[in-house]
Specification:
This is Diguanylate cyclase/phosphodiesterase. One of its GO terms (biological process) is signal transduction. One of its GO terms (cellular component) is membrane. By secondary structure, this protein is an alpha/beta fold. The chain has four domains: 179 residues, PAS domain (Beta-Lactamase, 2-Layer Sandwich); 40 residues; 158 residues, Alpha-Beta Plaits (2-Layer Sandwich), CATH 3.30.70; 198 residues, Alpha-Beta Barrel (TIM Barrel), CATH 3.20.20. The chain is built from 23 helices and 22 strands. Strands 13-14-16-17-18-19-20-21 form an eight-stranded mixed barrel. It has a five-stranded antiparallel beta sheet with strand order 2-1-5-4-3, sandwiched between helices. Strands 7-8-6-11-12 form a five-stranded mixed beta sheet, sandwiched between helices. A hairpin with a 2-residue loop joins strand 4 and strand 5. The longest helix has 67 residues.
Length: 701
């Protein structure tokens, strides 16, 4: 704006100077025109005045000379002539007689004869009356001298026009001086007017700069500051003005304060977890970068702990998301209290999302960072494991914690976070409810796991995955009554891969949700082809279900579809679910299992005894039987405690009307002892190895 105003002022100044130049030029033209008109007017006026003077002078002389000329009184004529010659502007006076002879010219020794001035004289002598003639700078006036009607001579008066011209020039010189003086005054007035206009323009420029440009410039600087993210602006000096610009500045100030307030809110939202009030991933990453830079300069270690609540989804599925938020908030408060107690305010606790928490233990938090981090991780595992009262019920949770150290494990934030996540995952693989430090070997394990997951995708379609069936016998008479479907993977390069390896990969990656229905459908199709022995019911098929399948909610529909497509009767299908999966979400699992049992499908609780279940849990979960875990069966011949536990499980299940199946029977003595204790069914390598579907069908006869 200031530049434009300066440009406008410059243009106005140039226009004013151009106008002044035009006015001066016009004034000079007018002065010359006035002088020309004055000269012409003076010439005309002077000529007319001189003519009238000459005419009057000639008539008077004609009258005065009539008598002297009649008497030829040269003395009188000379007196009159000399008096006339002394008059201003008279150049000559000539007196002629009737014959045209010059008789007197006003000099003391008058000349006689001659005509005096040639052609002028001839015309003057021939004139009958007054005659005015001009030749060069001479004005000649002639008048006949007569007495009565008789002409007795003539008189000529010559006037010098040079004198008239001198008078004219003198008058014009005065006019010129007056015009010049007027022009100078005019020029002075114009200069003063121009100076006044320039002063006015300078004053307007200063006012524009002071009261408009500077406030607008401050507003522009404030706008740039706001654009750069600096919303806290100082008060603008023009805020006390009561004009429109003052209103604009005050409105801008209010907007700035509002933006600052909203920026603080947005930053709080951007850097704070909404549920727990802890720092979020973004705030944690910025703090981590700063702490690593400080630790790198000081040569001090930093520890990073990743804590993940194990199987937290079952809380949401069982009690709802509101209750899950309450449990998560309680865990966050416990972890925060433990971190603050052991590490002080310098440590940072953040929620990365879901049920995952990350703790930054900065340099200086402990003398031995590894020991300090290990102690903190153990405390976190312990504090999360304490029961939580949720909806008037005690809920038990656990946490898996991964630890990584800077600079031992990584030199930057990204690698450190990745290593902590890997260590936390290894803690889950190790059985959960524990902590693990990161090691280089974990990277290789993760790479192998990722590669295995990649190869597992599509393995069913490529025919690499297949089902085998381990026979299940009735303990009382060793009759073959069914089989458990087991999934096997024969890799084209790596050969047979252990189920404990690839099943866990499928479970963790979510591939089990695709493989589960495929396995169930294939097992139902194979079992539908099995023929019963004479006098015995057709054998059943037992299929393992993963916790993910149980949580999906559509399990009854999937089972019904498989039964319909295969034609297998529902009572011949037994579904096995791990004890930990069922006990972790009793309400939801109970509803699903009730629907399955209502359709005729049998439900067994697999690996019973490994989840510290009690009679109260079995009463709340609708199952048809339990399978004693192989870890109890393996030592019942030499460990009295395992025998006592196995006996108690059998008795407890029978008291609830449930069938008991023993897994891992590999010795005849184990089989005999189980039969003695009243176990219903058994399976194991002593009884029969897993077989392909065709070979198992041949066992049926």
């Amino acid at each position: 704006m200031q530049a434009r105003f300066l440009a406008m002022m410059a243009a106005a100044t140039l226009a004013m100077l151009a106008l002044f130049a035009v006015l001066l030029h016009r004034q000079a033209q007018m002065q010359r025109e006035v002088e020309r008109i004055g000269r012409d007017t003076l010439d005309a006026s002077l000529a007319q005045a001189l003519r009238r003077q000459g005419e009057g002078e000639a008539r008077q002389l004609a009258e005065s000379l009539a008598e002297p000329l009649y008497h030829v009184d040269l003395a009188a004529i000379g007196t009159i002539a000399r008096a006339t010659l002394h008059e201003p502007g008279v150049r000559h006076l000539l007196v002629y007689d009737a014959a045209g002879n010059l008789i007197h010219d006003g000099r003391p020794d008058p000349g006689r004869g001659g005509d005096g001035q040639g052609s002028l004289a001839a015309r003057a002598l021939a004139a009958r009356g007054l005659l005015v003639q001009q030749e060069g700078s001479l004005l000649d006036v002639a008048m006949p001298v007569a007495i009565g009607r008789e002409r007795i001579g003539s008189v000529r008066v010559g006037y010098d026009l040079g004198a008239m011209h001198a008078a004219r020039d003198h008058a014009l010189a005065g006019l010129h001086r007056r015009l010049d003086d007027l022009a100078r005054r005019h020029l002075l007035v114009m200069a003063l007017l121009g100076a006044a206009l320039l002063a006015l323009g300078a004053a307007m420029l200063w006012m524009l700069q002071r009261f408009v440009v500077q406030p607008i410039r401050r507003l522009a600087e404030s706008a740039r500051a706001i654009e750069g993210g600096r919303f806290e602006l100082p008060a603008l000096p023009a805020s006390a003005r009561n004009d429109e610009l003052g209103d604009l500045v005050r409105a801008f100030g209010r907007m700035s304060r509002s933006l600052a307030r909203h920026d603080r809110d947005i930053r709080r939202m951007a850097y704070t977890d909404a549920l727990t009030g802890l720092a979020n991933r973004l705030a944690f990453r910025e703090r981590l970068d700063a702490e690593l830079a400080t630790a790198r300069d000081a040569g001090r270690p930093v520890a990073l702990l990743f804590a993940d609540i194990d199987d937290f989804k079952r809380i949401n599925d069982t009690y709802g998301h509101d209750a899950g938020d309450e449990a998560l908030l309680e865990c966050a408060q416990r972890i925060h209290a433990e971190v603050e107690r052991r590490c002080g305010e310098r440590a940072l606790l953040a929620r990365f999302g879901g049920d995952e928490f990350v703790i930054l233990v900065p340099a200086g938090a402990g003398a031995d960072m590894r020991a300090h981090a290990s102690s903190l991780a153990q405390a976190l595992v312990g504090t999360v494991a304490r029961p939580i009262l949720l909806r008037e019920r005690e809920v038990f949770l656990s946490a898996s914690v991964g630890l990584t150290l800077f600079p031992d494990d990584a030199g930057d934030a990204t690698a450190l976070i990745k290593n902590g996540d890997i260590a936390m995952y290894q803690a889950k693989v190790a059985g959960k409810n524990c902590f693990r430090f990161y090691s280089r070997a974990m990277d290789r394990a993760v790479e192998r796991r990722v590669h295995l997951e990649h190869e597992l995708r599509g393995a069913w379609e490529r025919g690499e995955l297949s089902l085998v069936y381990q026979p299940v016998f009735r303990v009382a008479d060793r009759a073959l009554v069914g089989a458990e479907a087991l999934l096997r993977w024969r890799h084209p390069q790596r050969g047979a891969i252990a189920p404990s390896v690839f099943i866990d990969v499928a479970e963790q990656s979510g591939l089990i949700e695709t493989l589960g229905p495929q396995v169930l459908g294939a097992a139902c199709a194979d079992a539908a082809l099995w023929q019963a022995r004479a006098g015995a019911p057709a054998p059943f098929v037992a299929v393992n279900l993963s916790p993910r399948q149980l949580r999906s909610g559509d399990l009854p529909a999937v089972v019904a579809d498989c039964l319909q497509r295969s034609g297998l009767r529902p009572e011949r299908l037994h579904l096995e679910l791990t004890e930990t999966a069922v006990m972790g979400d009793e309400a939801s699992a109970g509803r699903l299992l009730s629907q399955l049992r209502a359709s005729g499908v049998k439900v067994w609780l697999d690996d019973f005894g490994t989840g510290f279940s009690g009679l109260s849990h079995l009463r709340r979960v609708p199952v048809d039987g339990v399978k004693i875990d192989r870890s109890f069966v393996a030592d019942i011949l030499r460990d009295p405690d395992d025998l006592a536990l196995t006996t108690a499980i059998i008795a407890m299940a029978h008291s609830l009307g449930m069938t008991v199946v023993a897994e891992g029977v590999e010795k005849e003595g184990q089989y005999a002892l189980l039969r003695e204790r009243g176990c219903n069914l058994a399976q194991g390598y002593w009884l029969g190895h897993p077989l392909p579907a065709q070979e198992f069908a041949r066992l049926l006869g």
